[in-house]
Design brief:
By secondary structure, this protein is an alpha/beta fold. It is 27% helix and 17% strand. The protein contains 8 helices and 10 strands. The strands form 2 sheets. A 6-stranded parallel beta sheet has the order 2-1-5-3-6-4. A 4-stranded antiparallel beta sheet has the order 7-8-10-9. A hairpin with a 3-residue loop joins strand 7 and strand 8. The chain is globular and about 55 Å long.
């Protein structure tokens, strides 16, 4: 999103440049549902982090920072409250967040959302005591992001703020979702304007262009390997209007997919995807340990 500039040039609340401050646009949504955001300490000061702005609109929130040396996140007081904790995180045992799921337990919900990049969120869920016992949910399939801010495979490529808005749409109704999404749009437009570029909505269906199916080189119950064409992006980015390989493969095989590694846009070759977050993590560890032989 916005280029990083000195903190004194930015509003401390919305993190926008002072001349583009959007604090007057932030609604105050006092709701039954509580948001608990877990964020890596390195992400907190970044103006590109979208989760903290959601906290500003939801005063009935809890905020936890993890990852710093000698800092311990204690979620037990949160889990001891007479509320239903739900962790918004993709995993094999996650259930779709729906009205039917909410009807199973009448308690008000505390929605726990790990923020940051995919690696930071995954480590938070694995390492913070108490999260392993929290019921996990995912969003139902929906429209792609309008802006294409996120280059991660989680939550179907949505930014943290977009994911929170859609989850609160289920938990609190469409009006709340619209108010949150309207604030997010203003944040994005202010950020893009700060870069000297005109605001531009990302669209997934430009000219309804049809993309030929990907060539699948290998597939089993855990893995898929495809031939990535030269000129194709693995993830959605700022300026690309074509459908990236991640979304193409997901739609082609009808399953959520997790890219294990990346190839540059101009590079063609075999691209490995996992069919679960757990397998993806194991394979990425193998790549990091250089136990994978690539030719």
């Amino acid at each position: 999103m916005a280029k990083f500039t000195k903190k004194e040039n930015r509003c401390k609340r919305c993190k926008m440049h002072f001349e583009r401050c959007i604090c007057s646009e932030i609604p105050e949504l006092n709701l039954a549902t509580r948001l608990a955001l877990i964020m890596h300490y390195r992400e907190v000061p970044k103006p590109s982090a979208t989760g903290p702005l959601a906290l500003e609109a939801l005063p009935n929130h809890r905020f936890f920072i993890h990852g710093a040396r000698d800092a311990r996140v204690d979620l037990q007081p949160l889990l001891d409250e007479p509320r239903r904790p739900l962790l918004l995180f993709p995993s094999d045992d996650a259930r779709v967040l729906s009205k039917e799921l909410l009807e199973e337990d009448p308690r008000p919900v505390t929605l726990i959302v790990p923020d940051g990049n995919w690696g930071q969120a995954r480590r938070a869920v694995k390492r913070i005591p108490g999260l392993e016992q929290v019921e996990r949910v995912v969003l139902a399939p929906g429209p792609p992001t309008r802006w294409g801010l996120r280059a991660e495979p989680t939550l179907d490529g949505l930014s943290t703020f977009e994911a929170i808005a859609r989850a609160f749409g289920v938990l609190e109704g469409e009006r709340v979702q619209r108010e949150l999404e309207s604030l997010f749009d203003k944040m994005v437009q202010a950020s893009i304007a700060a870069r000297g570029a005109a605001p531009r909505i990302h669209r997934n269906d430009v000219a309804n262009a049809k993309t030929p199916p990907l060539e699948i080189l290998y597939q089993d119950e855990a893995l898929v390997v495809v031939q990535k064409p030269s000129g194709s992006l693995v993830h959605r980015g700022w300026a690309n209007d074509e459908e990236p390989v991640l979304q193409q493969l997901r739609d082609q095989i009808g399953k959520r997919v997790y890219p294990v590694h990346r190839l540059d846009r101009a590079t063609s070759g075999a691209l490995l995807f996992a069919l679960s977050a757990e397998v993806c993590a194991q394979l990425q560890e193998s790549f990091d340990a250089k136990t994978v032989d690539k030719r």
